[in-house]
Amino acid sequence: MNNFELHNPTKLIFGKGQIQKLKEQLPKKAKILLVYGGGSIKKNGVYDTVKQNLSEYSFVEFGGIEPNPQFDTLMKAVSIVRTEKIDFILAVGGGSVIDGTKFIAAAANFRGNPWDILAKGTTVKSAIPFGTILTLPATGSEMNSFAVISKGNEKLAFGHPILHPQFSILDPKITFSLFDRQLNNGIVDTFVHTTEQYLTSSINTPIQDRFAEGILLTLIEEADKVMKLKDDYDSRANLMLSATMALNGFIGIGVDQDWATHQIGHELTALYGIDHARSLAVILPSLLRIQKETKKDKLVQFASRVWNIPTTDSDTMIEKAIQMTEDFFENLGVPTKLRFYKIPKQDFPKITDAINKHFSGSLGENQDLDKTRILQILEAAY
Ligand code: NZQ
Ligand code: ZN
To answer: Is residue 347 assigned to a domain?
Structure first.
């Protein structure tokens, strides 16, 4: 097991009606910026409930944060934070609103051009404190300190420990208003966050492995209920907790981590507008096939413990496990082939050039995914 430190200060407030605890979490006399997306919270009643809970506070609103939050939009909110002297931000939304809020919180106090935080990796030194009300289980942003921000056809990640939300309120009932596409995206994103940390080197980490397998098995068991039963509280609660636990640091302690599926996927989103989770569903199966030698032990374990595949030779078990993963995504309604998105093969060098621009060196837990291998993955994903 690798050495690690774990510090996650986000207070998780989970369950039915927990939005009523919002007031108790907010600092007294704070001037608040209420941040949300394109308006789903106005249709499902969350906006009204939040406003009732903010009645004793002075607050300003900023709506309109788009999926894959855009730098230019977020900078408008930064200017409001500065002119209105905001001292707490409340994000109400999915990963995009929460990521956008992390950027606003960091950029508001930043001296210089805030794009440098993303493009140059300039360290964030302070941030406006913030809390969240999560409306879409997928990214884990509600309990981690990372964010992914877009500008033109660039989509870049950053993070800093001071960007943990102070609290996150998760009421599974809020997910009842999600459309199928957001639900199946959430299941796939959670699945791939787990495999990025689990399907790596085998370095004797049985606790972390079983946490990860617990999340994967829960997703597989609950997916049907999540998709078919539109108001089943229990399956939504299980999905919501899975999504948070998959990327709040816990399953990543002491293990090698990959993240190449995400790094390649982000370029597909930036260049072609493919939904985040859909970009992962296309890349993951091919990446596992190309990397099956270095990931062999974990892939066999995945085949046996997650997909219940009887023990035969390792190649057969691994291929069967990858196929079952593809079938799982496809049955949810999430395509696993690049040709579905009509991206011309001639574009592949453009994709590898973008990866090369954004990441120094090769990708993967062993830094062995160079340009040639990434081209093989894209080819195999076609
Ligand atoms: O904008 P509104 O109107 O709220 O509608 C949203 C949006 O259109 C809608 N929605 C959210 N909650 C809803 C709802 N509709 C009905 N009922 C509800 N309860 O769903 C749409 C998609 O929302 P979005 O926030 O974009 O989705 P998601 O949570 O999947 O976030 C994706 C973003 O997170 C980044 C992705 O790259 C992408 O930009 N990620 C962030 C990570 C992190 N911070 O750790 C890790 C992830 O790997 C990921 O990269
Ligand atoms: Zn993701």
So the answer is: yes
CATH code of residue 126? 3.40.50.1970
Cα distances from 277 to residues 40, 139, 189, 190, 299, in angstroms, run: 20, 9, 5, 9, 21
Ligand nearest to the Cα of 185, by number: 1
Q: Are 110 and 18 found together in one domain?
A: yes
Which residues, 6 or more positions from 311, have their beta carbon under 8 angstroms from its beta carbon? Answer: 304, 317
Any domain includes 299:
yes
Other beta carbons within 10 Å of 325: 25
Contact 104, 147 (CB under 8 A): no
Residue with tokens 């409930």: 49
User: What single letter denotes the amino acid at residue 237?
Assistant: A
The tokens for 158 are: 């950053």
The β-bridge partners of 148 are 157
Within a domain: 313: yes
pTM of the model: 0.98
Quick check: is 6 in a domain? no
For residues 93 and 108, state if they share a domain: yes
Nearest CA to ligand 1 atom 46: 139
Q: Chunked in runs of 10, what are the mean pLDDT values of the chain (382 residues)? A: 98 97 94 97 97 95 98 98 97 98 97 95 96 98 98 95 98 98 98 98 98 98 97 98 98 98 97 97 98 98 98 97 98 97 95 94 96 97 96
Instruction: Please report the pLDDT score of residue 360 as a whole number.
Output: 87
Residue in the block written with tokens 């509600």: 142
User: For the chain, what is the domain count?
Assistant: 2
Q: What CA dihedral angle connects 338, 240, 202 and 196, to 10 degrees?
A: 30
231 lies in which domain range?
179-380
Instruction: Work out which ligand 1 atom sits closest to the CA atom of 177.
Output: 17
Tell me the three state secondary structure of residue 14. Answer: strand
Q: Under 8 Å CB-to-CB from 139, ≥6 apart: which residues?
A: 94, 95, 98, 99, 189, 243, 247, 276
CATH code, 232: 1.20.1090.10
Nearest CA to ligand 1 atom 34: 95
Q: Which ligand has its closest atom nearest to the C-alpha of 190?
A: 2
Same domain, 153 and 48: yes
Q: Is 68 in the pocket of ligand 1 (CB under 6 A)?
A: yes
